Amino acid sequence: MPVAQRLGRWLRRRADVAGRSGGHHDRADPTRATVVGQGELTTKPAADSATAPIASERVSLAVIAQQWGRIGCIGFGGPPTHIALLRRLCVQQRRWLSAADFEDGIAATNLLPGPASTQLAIWCAWRLRGAPGALIGGLCFIVPGLIVILALAALFLSGRPPLWAAGAAAGAGAAVPAVAAHAAAGLIPASWKRAGAGRGARLRWLAYLLAGGLAAALTGPWLVLVLIGCGFIEIAARTRPTTASPHLSAMSSLPLLSLLPALPALAAPAAATGGLLAVAWVAAKVGALSYGGGFVIIPLMQHDAVHTYHWMSNAQFLDAVALGQITPGPVVQTVAVVGYAAAGLGGGLLAAALAFTPSFAFVLIGGRHFDRLREAPRIQAFLTGAGAAAIGAIAGSTLPLALALSHLWQAGILAASALWLLALRRGVVTALIGAGALGAAAALIGAPIAT
After folding, report:
1. For 244-277, b where at least 16 C-beta lie within 10 A, e where not — what string?
2. Residue 169 CB partners (closer than 8 Å, separation 6+)
3. What is the pLDDT of residues 286-300, one digit of tens each?
């Protein structure tokens, strides 16, 4: 055998041995991966790359189930907590994703309707193990909070809950309007910046904010049409006329969103029959149309659950919203309590499944296109308009939520909660727990409790 051929074989064998022993490093990936335990990965950055991503080996599904389930159990405090926990896990501790990739994921999921932190959890798992990872990670993130909230729903919606429990629910429910106002206030700065610096853009933003607030306070189920209308108005304002109609051009860039205005009219006759079909329709609206975060669906759910189908009283609905805040997971979990009130455990599970299905679909179908989504001017314009209207809707929902309070002592808890959240800028979970404790004390000393 020629010497050159023997030398080539020897070099190839040496490269294979080095690769199997961990001695070979891809020059495009300046990190070293080490297998720990059952397929769990950690990475040791090279000395010259403190922020370098990411081991090339796949993270096991068991590790995804364990870690996403852990976050689902301890994720009290809403999206800020969820994002911080996911960042710590995926970027800082395990280095599965780079900081830039993670920030891109946040930006992309914030462009979508539905619970953004849930979509971010699904997206992170999708990046690690594709569709199986997304399904397992998303379910493990959602299910712990769902179990807790359904158990609490069974307690608080029972015919004769303990006196302390009824009082705690009434107290926490009294704080809900302040929580809604706090949520809206937290979203305003980023949305205002996104609107642009021009005088016309700022005036349109204020108009969208006002329209969303009035719609949430006055129109109930038609709120979603106002949100979509504001989005398309902003597209028209930012799109220069072409040979085709600007409206049609905008619609063609958003094929899915262009169908949304017709959905209420198409589904209303079927949903009007009530029962599980009505539960399914309410949950579908919650999952697919909650622009601006989970709180925007509160006025939609309140109208359907209390006034249209009479599944709950106003007091019970406030309890449901409070439960969605104090349990781990997104506020969208509130829909599970509404489903439980409508049709028991089956209704709660159906409502949760349908509310979260769009989040999985957005990531599984569109995850590979998220970069283009962020760069699409018409989609950015739509979400600028719809997002401002959604913030107005969250703020506007404080009026019907406050009017749903039944007793004067609840107004005192509402005022204290507003002071805690808006003036002192303290946390939502502590506000609700404190309000619940005050409510339980009020019930035990004889204060009236609405049911």
Report:
1. eebeebbbebbeebbebeebbeebeeebeeeeee
2. 156, 161, 315, 319, 322, 436, 439
3. 887 776 566 777 877
Helix axes 176-195, 377-396, angle to 10 degrees: 150
Per-residue pLDDT tens over the stretch 133-176: 999 999 999 999 999 999 999 988 877 888 898 899 899 999 99
Helix (H, G, I), strand (E, B) or coil at 45: strand
Spatial separation of the C-alpha atoms in residues 394 and 187, rounded to whole Å = 10
What is the residue-wise DSSP string for 342-400?
Answer: HHHHHHHHHHHHHHHHHHHHHHHHHGGGHHHHHH-HHHHHHHHHHHHHHHHHHHHTHHH
Strands (E), 59-207: none
3-state SS, residue 291: coil
Q: How far apart are CA 367 and CA 239, in angstroms?
A: 26
Residues 6+ apart with CB under 8 A from 29: 52, 53, 54, 55, 56
Closest listed residue to residue 417, CA positions, set 186, 175, 145, 93:
175
Identify the bridge partners of residue 44 per DSSP, sorted by sequence position. Answer: 32
